[in-house]
Amino acid sequence: MSKVGVVGAGTMGNGIAHVFAQHGWDVSLVDLEPEALERALKTIATNIERLVRKGVGSRESGAGTLARIKASTSFDAVKGAEILVEAATENPKIKFEIFATVSRLLAPDSILASNTSSISITELAKHTDRPGKVIGMHFMNPVPLMPLVEVVRGHLTDDETVRRVVEVVEELKKTPVIVNDSSGFVSNRVLMPMINEAIFCVDEGVATPEAVDQVMKLGMNHPLGPLALADLIGLDVCLAIMKVLQDGLDVHKYRPAPLLEQMVAKGQLGRKSGQGFYAYRD
Ligand code: NAD
After folding, report:
1. Residue of the CA atom closest to atom 41 of ligand 1
2. Binding site membership of 10 for ligand 1 (Cβ less than 6 Å)
3. Fold exhibited by the domain 189-271
4. What pTM did the predictor assign?
5. Is 78 close to ligand 1, i.e. is its CB under 6 Å away?
């Protein structure tokens, strides 16, 4: 049986653990916060139930999925994993430390992947003992439903690692798209400036959040408006990505909207905090 370690049990980590377990992998889900692990297991159970109601899988296979996920606050739990997917907070210092820790714990041929939205895979690789085995596996939110995984080839990633990760993504019934390591990769380099511009529109009184989202949904055929999407992603994550684009590409072109900075400072992070551009129950 293949084993995957997932580090970080937030919005993305719980979804990543869910899809690996759904496809027969043993999963060790690690987070520093016991509450985050508890929340993640609850979310996975709720999402399995939702999928069963939609006719995707049976109650028995759902129970099997849950049983394959072991939650732990200790990094030792990832020992023996073939692949580790890091999905912790989007902060380079935190990720550098995690990569250094897991490279001490895992066999030298294990793959170390990051779900980072924007941090350089090549930089992450430098904090490990195996730069050739470090790669980006950028899942999309919500993970159980979204078909894409952006596979990010760092400057040091070897061909065998890319080949194996593509194979694993296909095993998870998702579509891998290979891109090179550059700030924001493709997905966020294109998406985040649009979200940021939508926030500028609200900030400058051009339109309400509802109006901005309506324009993009009805006029551009987007299934979700950019501000509802920002709430789903997490405004702290959006701000962190804009800062990476600013640092890596162009300080003026990628300036975060002041309203985005203010909302994050106030703890209005979107769905996960209950308040963003919209209010959320639960
Ligand atoms: P989140 O804030 O929901 O969860 C992050 C989790 O990491 C928290 O539970 C936190 O306790 C944990 N954590 C922090 N430091 C840790 C450490 N040292 N060891 C173990 N766990 C630690 O964040 P998220 O939205 O799930 O984002 C996770 C990663 O996925 C980020 O790199 C983000 O850029 C990326 N990502 C996010 C989205 C999205 O839509 N939210 C989409 C694609 C990629």
Report:
1. 233
2. yes
3. N-(1-d-carboxylethyl)-l-norvaline Dehydrogenase; domain 2 (1.10.1040)
4. 0.92
5. no
